[in-house]
Amino acid sequence: MSPAHRLTAVLAAGVLATSACSSGTNASGGSDGLRVSAVATDRAGTEAVIEAFKAANPGVEITTSYADTDQYQGTLRTQLSSGTAPDVFFAWPGNGNPGAIEVLAPTGYLADLSGRPWTSKIPPGVEPVTRVDGKTYVVPLTFVGIGGLFNAGAMDEIGAEPPQTWSDLLAFCDRAEAEGKVAFALGNQTDWVTQLVDYALVATTVYADAPDFARNMQAGSATFAGSGWKTAMDKYLEMDERGCFSEDPLGTSFETSVTQLAKGDAVATIQVTSTLNQVKSEAPQGTGFGLFPVPATDDAAQTRMPGAAGGAFAMNAKAKNPDLATEFIDFLASPTAMNLYASATGNLPSIPNDQFELDPTLQPLVDFQKANRTVPFMDQFWPNPKVQQAHFTGVQNMFAGEADPNTVLKQMDDAYKEE
Predict the structure, then answer these.
(1) How does pLDDT run across 124-182, given as a tens digit for each residue?
(2) pTM here?
(3) What DSSP string describes 143-207?
(4) Which domain holds residue 276?
(5) Shared-domain flag, residues 175 and 197
């Protein structure tokens, strides 16, 4: 299928998925109501804050729609260009994918939120990816990490502990296999999942020694191919060859990997923390879970953990109901909404507050954040969505035996230079 035909198919599928997931007080979405859309992975958080907003505003009509990430991104762009986009919608901080604000803001589709009172409360570590040319375009709701989510019962069954070094990690894979379990569930059939193991490893193999790597890339003094990205990709493939992952990662979807972890067929998975509550919802009652930073060297002190602004919402510059949309955006920035959203999605609120009740599973992310050992998600500083797509495709080709790390990294470097 040609890229153009593939895009058409994705857009069509997105429209169908979005329509199929619509809900709300009044599905017709009258002019007095509000239309909100989000990615399916953040549905629980979105619905939690919508219910709270409706409780505080009796009679308000809200229509919602959800779609899987790749479908959502394509559909959103189509809706924005055709004037049919929702009033408020999920958007990604920073850059690097078609739904990110640095891609959308220059088109004039996003409302400038700089004058809202909550913008001054956004933490310095999050603020840069909420702004474009000095203007704020999203309200960030969560701080999200990437790490090894593990099923505590399955970990006990194989008699293992969370690995702290690279050697520990390989031994963990061997131990799980010997006990008839998958060490790390991996659903590389789903595009966006392909990046997560690399991100977890690159946080250490690149940023532990080169914390300014993203800035150096932007200045043209660093490249993917000449960096610790090569080390990370080699280790990614070493894990696959060692039997660390699901039997057929390219034939395994994100949903299947979640089920493997929830049931204890897999001991762990390298995932975003927002997956935690989805895993919990599928697991037998009483199942415990934990989180560990993914080591990439035998020096545990070097280990870094990806952590960055996650779920965020933008306002349509041509919202059909701008007053209600603005009121909803301001509500999202409140501690009440942020805490509801963070709790429902298994993350931390992007603006810390004393009212948030931390899920103990997330304590490692909090500890690494406090110790300044977290690294922003790599794609948030990439100049265009083509780099991420080259990464997605490259990892899938590596797992299919059709590419090696050097080839993929060159493709990523080439995409990085494109306008």
Answers:
(1) 878 989 999 999 999 999 999 999 999 999 999 999 999 999 999 999 999 999 999 99
(2) 0.80
(3) EEEEEEEEEHHHHHHTT-----SHHHHHHHHHHHHHTT-EEEE--TTSGGGHHHHHHHHHHHHTT
(4) 145-307+377-417
(5) yes
